[in-house]
Amino acid sequence: MADDTGYDGRSRAVPKGRLARFGVMGRLAGGVAGNVLAEGAKRLVAGERPQLRDLVLTPGNVARATEQLAQLRGAAMKLGQMISLDAGDVLPDELTQILARLRDRAHHMPPAQLQQVLAKEWGADWRRRFALFEAHPMAAASIGQVHRARLPDGRMLAIKVQYPGVRESIDADVDNVATLLRLSGLLPKGLDIAPLLGEAKRQLHDEADYVREAAMMTRYADHLAGDDRYLVPRPVPELSTVNVLAMDYIAAKPIETLEAADQGERNRVTTALIDLVLQELFAFAFIQTDPNFANYRYEPETGRLVLLDFGAAMPVSDAITNGYRNLLKAGLNSDRAAVRNAALELGFFSAAALERHPAVIDRMIALILEQTDRADDFDFGDRSFLQAVRGEGMQMVEDRAVWHVPPADTLFVQRKISGMALLAARLKAHVGLRELVEKRLPQ
After folding, report:
1. Over the stretch 340-376, which tens digit does the pLDDT of each residue have?
2. Residue 250 has pLDDT above 80, yes or no
3. How buried is residue 407: exposed, middle or buried, by Cβ count under 10 Å (0-12/13-18/19+)?
4. Which residues are marked as active site?
5. Which of the four, 123, 130, 162, 306, has the lowest number of CB atoms within 10 Å?
């Protein structure tokens, strides 16, 4: 893990047990409902005919939802983070605000609750194992918080401690958040999100299993052994359990600090990040699907990228590898028909969308393929073409009859790709994409 996080959150006990967490969701729903009735009555008196969505997504309800979901942490908060990464151009501004705040906001456990968790995992005398254990976490997120510690031999560790009750609450939390989304009127009644919810639950259960994450971290570190562009911490098995993950502490800076670096260094680091995704897809068949910027750190002394958090790592199927190979090969060849077929096969749009909006899809593909002309030196800081693509796509977005849920593995992989593109844009990097892709693309 890393220092210099800037984390300075508040402590608040994590609600444990189904009833306690249901109570938080109940208070959220009740408060929202009360605000809806009050706001609706006020607008009716004023002669307005408000829509339900406008009443649900008031500033007061936005603040209430953010606070309550941040208190719950766990799956409720994680699902909000997952949705928020790519949906900002589709969801209403107010809901986007809730989800965006959840990316960066989490309370940490108060000392008494932390003591209970660690005593259960390590025994009542657990502090004797350490020369130093910093009680205030250096980071807190949706599933756990991270503390810095020092062993008697001087070795520095990062200790990730899972919030109590998070694993047991995953299924109910995901269902409750989905219910809130449905009540907001954002999801068409005919849209079947059950497969996605099931896959989200599966991945969240994986993330809550720190023994599994330790194995994934080791596997990832082994893949990158010998590549001095990257550094992955190693777990400490004798201190790790299902609920506690001990690992090497690596002092590094937030990846965003590179915004102040010179253009050459920003280009080099971004090239390494994109090359890593290509290796995940086409060499490792194994991908870390969480592109949260906090999972990528920078070691100024060496220029290495420090890679963190492998709870969301998953195998990549042959179908996904072949699908992205076909898509990228078609893009490099500027073959519009092949791009359309590969995108349909991966599930980026539905057969119904292709039938109802073929011209829209073709125009979107044409806009994207225009970018292959500048792929030799791609400027991620220029995102104007994305606005054009989204503008074309709004016709399909507004046609709820063609909404569909892509396969979960496509969503998770594309979430990683989109996150890296966002980071590259943040760093305003220039990357030789064509050379990178041709180097890693299987023939």
Report:
1. 999 999 999 889 999 999 999 999 999 999 888 788 9
2. yes
3. middle
4. 290
5. 123
Structure token pair of residue 382: 């220029």
pLDDT value at 242 more than 90: yes
Contact between residue 149 and residue 134 where contact means Cβ atoms under 8 Å apart: yes
- Phi then psi for residue 371, to 5 deg, are -75, -20
Which neighbouring-strand residues pair with 288?
A: 313
Summarize pLDDT for 175-193 with one digit per residue, the tens: 877 776 666 555 666 667 7
Tokens found for residue 211: 């023994």
Contact between 144 and 96 (Cβ < 8 Å): no
CB 45 within 8 A of CB 375: no
Distance, in Å, from the CA atom of 355 to the CA atom of 340, rounded to the nearest integer, reads 12
Question: In angstroms, how far apart are the furthest CA atoms of the chain?
Answer: 73
Angstrom CA distances, 422 to 5, 85, 119, 347, stand at: 20, 9, 41, 22
At 195 the pLDDT is 79
Length of the chain: 443
Provide the pairing of β-strand 296-299 with 313-315: unpaired
Report the alpha-carbon distance of residue 417 to residue 206 in Å, rounded: 21
What's the pLDDT score for residue 398?
78
Residue 46 in tokens: 């004023």
